[in-house]
Specification:
heterodimer; A: 55 residues; mainly alpha; B: 807 residues; alpha+beta; Alpha-Beta Plaits; 7 domains; seven-stranded mixed β-sheet
């Protein structure tokens, strides 16, 4: 049964990892502008294509 | 985009901005442009290999405004630079510009590729919802002014304001809220997980050691929730107590506190599992409600003062030379230069030049007022026409219009003076809960003090007003979103509540009840042939005067021809030769050489524009205000429930017309100064009315601020509107009665949601009262009641809004 103790410790740690990721994302400003990155990601794709054409 | 709806298929559209190419269009390389400005932008982009701009969006361009570059000269001033730049170490500088023109993905792309247009720019990032561009640049290779000019030349005119710093505070606050939600969510989830054996009654099967371990883990996990995530509620509750108000946060605080302490006791003394899961869940849901309620319209600014409208700098003539100085340094007696389209920032006397001042910012009235030498020109007007020289007679902050902001009204927060619905109800709620808790304790006292304490705490935990505390933010937040979808943008969710308490409505006239741009035009006199109409159109095309523009737009179907000998006399009129005909359009004296007694403001308060061809006077166009569609129905609908008032800065000429709507003549006031409007509203409030002010221009700013709720009517939301609580798009003016009704409904929705959860609570209370509250029941009841309240209030408000005709 004591394996449960390990399991619980691991599960809390994993959850804490996600919490840390979330806090980092907020701190990093990722929740401030939820629209522009969705548009920006499309530009980058095309930019690469453009470079290839130029070559 | 509206501008594209009106085009026919046969029209040639501008390659840059998508406007219909009219006769002044230019062609280049097989591409058509509506004006040379658009062509210029295209050329800049093509030179720099940025034509992908046109592939990303359909006709993304903006026609650049034709203005002189002197406008940005002040950005070279060290002091101004310090205020505008977000960061600078002398070499690298960072600036964030607000660019209201930003509207599509092409804009984002172009603005993020600024480095290809100016090699001094090292980095540019766009925040589209806020319409902001952050640009990092090398001070040695370029300058702030150059970047501003570059943006302007591309059509993205940056709006520079010196009081932009305060917005950062709000973004920090939102961040904190997210942190708290993250922590609360994490703890809530884990506590729930660890409580599962408890819920399922498994703890008897397993090792009691686990039971102990889980209890202490729960306790550990609940600490951050109790001390960090919920901290806002304690602060708010104590603030309320300090001001001798029991706000809704107080019973919430009581519930959280009691459930924490009791759980602590149970866990430490091994008497039970505690209610940490309920506590953490409640805090988590409450915070989510807070986020839901705090929807903001980032691109809109509800806090504008005159500073947002006025230029930051002004050109001064000192001993014969022109210098640009920041506005605050302007002194009485200075000579200032105002160019075409610039705003006069201070009360002054016209010293040289022809003044023709457009006060549309201030009054909503767009016809310019002619000014002669020696006349006082009040601050806030926009000069149209030639350059003028003025002598300053007052300080910027003491001028006619700006003096309004010295009024006490602008120094205090207005919302705090009003008691919210939740404040009123929470007082009774707390009282009843406490009485019930004591009664329960007393009832069980005979059995055992232990049980009495149990009952006491259980009642406080169960009766915690989570239903109320959730129904309020979710209902108001949802209604606010519904308003937003219907083009009524409110500053925050409490506006919805204040709106529902309106008893009187005060309207401004010009720009609010009337269209600020559209007007009714009619011609009186000899019937004009199509040749004559074409002459008028050709001539008015040459002029930028608003009346000329209006007449030009009115004559849609006529042809235009070339004009020679064109002359424009500011404040008088225009003349020119077309073919063999000499045409004069303008004031009566200018066009016909006569002055009739009717001149000036005529009976129907319209501006008259006289026309003569080859010396023969043909008659006049009357250009009058046109009232908004559905005005009659709107007023009639409002009249039934509210006291209506009208405050206009104009003269009384439209009184007979308006009397049809505003039945009580005592409630119509004309020739009201901005100060008068403010005082009038104050007087109404002293009589006990809750006043809704509907206005538009800067002259309503005082009234909008003083009123309980100020709504500003705007033809274009990204444009300027004075400080207010809500911005209503002009086309939705007729929705005003429905908006008021829906805000009234929102209170009823909250009460209904509360009643629904009350049923749950009653059952739970009954169980708690008898001291039988099993953890499993409490654990199930809590989320079920909370979530059902949230669902119920959101669904009900959607349903009611749909029935009121909101999409």
């Amino acid at each position: 049964m004591s394996v449960i103790v390990v399991l619980i410790a691991v599960s809390v740690l994993v959850a804490a990892g996600f919490l840390a990721a979330f806090l980092w994302a907020v701190r990093n400003g990722q929740f401030e502008d939820k629209y522009t990155p969705s548009v920006r990601i499309l530009f980058d794709d095309e930019k690469i294509k453009e470079k290839q054409e130029n070559k | 985009m509206d501008k594209k709806n009106t085009t026919n298929k046969t029209d040639i559209l501008c390659y840059h901005c998508g406007d219909v190419c009219r006769d002044e269009s230019v062609e280049k390389g097989g591409l058509h442009f509506c004006c040379s400005g658009c062509k210029l932008v295209y050329e800049i982009l093509r030179e720099n290999d940025l034509c992908k701009y046109y592939e990303l969006g359909e006709k993304p361009g903006i026609t650049p405004s034709v203005r002189n570059k002197v406008k940005y000269e002040f950005l070279d001033d060290e002091q101004v630079k310090k205020q505008v730049l977000a960061f600078s170490d002398g070499k690298m500088s960072v600036v964030t510009f607000l660019i209201p023109q930003m509207h599509c993905s092409s804009c984002i792309w172009l603005l993020e590729n600024m480095h290809r247009l100016d090699e001094g720019v090292t980095y540019s990032r766009v925040d589209f919802p806020k319409k902001k561009a952050t640009i990092k640049f090398n001070e040695e290779k370029t300058s702030l002014r150059k970047i501003a000019e570059l943006l302007d030349s591309l059509g993205y005119e940056p709006s520079i304001s010196l009081d932009a710093a305060e917005k950062k505070v709000r973004s920090d606050h939102t961040k904190k809220l997210y942190y708290k939600i993250g922590v609360a969510g994490f703890c809530f989830g884990n506590i729930m997980l660890l409580s599962f054996p408890e819920y399922l009654g498994l703890e008897k099967l397993s090792d009691p050691e686990f039971h102990k371990l889980f209890g202490f883990l729960n306790l550990l996990l609940s600490l951050p929730v109790f001390f960090y995530s919920a901290s806002e509620y304690y602060i708010s509750a104590f603030k309320g107590l300090k001001n001798k108000v029991i706000n809704l946060d107080f019973p919430v605080f009581l519930g959280i506190l009691v459930s924490f302490i009791r759980s602590l006791y149970e866990i430490v003394f091994q008497t039970g599992a505690g209610y940490m899961d309920s506590m953490a869940g409640l805090v988590f849901l409450l915070l989510v409600g807070k986020v839901f309620q705090s929807k903001t319209y980032d691109s809109m600014n509800f806090e504008r003062t005159y500073k947002s409208y006025f230029p930051l700098s002004v050109t001064v003539i000192k001993s014969g030379t022109e210098t640009t100085i920041p506005l605050e340094k302007l002194k009485i007696g200075d000579r200032i230069l105002i160019r075409n389209n610039e705003i006069i920032p201070v009360d002054s006397i016209l010293f040289r030049g022809d003044g023709s001042v457009d006060y549309s910012f201030v009054t909503g009235e767009s016809s310019p007022v002619p000014k002669v030498l020696g006349e006082i020109i009040y601050a806030g007007g926009r000069q149209t026409g030639s350059l003028i020289e003025l002598e300053v007679i007052k300080n910027v902050s003491q001028s006619y219009l700006t003096g309004l902001w010295n009024n006490d009204t602008f120094r205090k927060e207005k919302a705090s003076s009003l008691k919210t619905f939740s404040d009123v109800i929470s007082k009774y709620f707390t009282l009843v809960t406490l009485i019930l808790a004591f009664a329960g304790a007393a009832y069980n006292m005979q059995e055992s003090p232990d049980k009495a304490l149990n009952v006491f705490t259980a009642i406080l935990i169960v009766a915690c007003p989570c239903a109320l505390a959730l129904a309020i933010p979710f209902t108001f937040g949802n209604i606010m979103r519904i308003f937003g979808r219907n083009k009524f943008y409110v500053k925050n969710a409490s506006v919805v509540e204040y709106l529902s308490r309106t008893t009187s409505i005060v309207f401004d006239k010009t720009g609010t009840l009337t269209h600020s741009r559209k007007s009714d035009i009619s011609f009186s006199g000899k019937e004009l042939s199509s040749n004559e109409l074409s002459l008028v159109k050709s001539l008015t095309r040459q002029s930028t005067h608003p009346l000329s523009r209006k007449i030009y737009e009115y004559l849609k179907n006529e042809e235009t021809r070339g004009v020679t000998d064109f002359a424009e006399r500011a404040g008088k009129g225009i003349s020119g030769r077309i073919g063999n005909d000499f045409v004069v359009i303008g004031s009566e004296e200018f066009a016909t050489g006569m002055t009739s007694e009717q001149n000036g403001l005529s009976a129907e308060n319209s501006s008259r524009v006289y026309l003569s061809v080859n010396g023969e006077s043909l008659g006049y166009f009357s250009v009058s205000n046109s009232y908004r569609e559905g005005l009659g129905e709107t007023i009639t609908a409002l009249e039934k429930k509210y006291e209506l008032h009208l405050l206009s800065g104009d003269n009384e000429s439209e009184r007979p017309f308006l009397e049809k709507y505003f039945r009580d003549p005592l409630q119509m006031y004309f020739r009201q100064s901005p100060e008068n409007k403010l005082k009038y509203i104050k007087a109404l409030q002293n009589e006990g009315s809750s006043v809704l002010m509907v206005g538009d221009g800067l002259n309503d700013a005082g009234a909008l601020k003083q009123s309980d709720i100020g709504i500003s009517i705007s033809e274009n939301v990204s444009n300027f509107s004075p400080a207010c609580d809500g911005i209503l798009e002009a086309e939705k003016f007729h929705k005003l009665p429905d908006i008021l009704k829906l805000s009234g409904d929102s209170i009823k929705i909250i009460i209904t949601s509360f009643a629904v959860s009350f049923v749950y609570n009653l059952v739970a209370l009954e169980i708690a009262f008898r001291g039988l509250l099993e953890p499993i029941i409490a654990a199930v009841l809590m989320p079920v009641s909370s979530i059902s309240v949230v669902l119920f209030s959101v669904l009900l408000s959607n349903f009611v809004a749909k029935r009121r005709g909101f999409g």
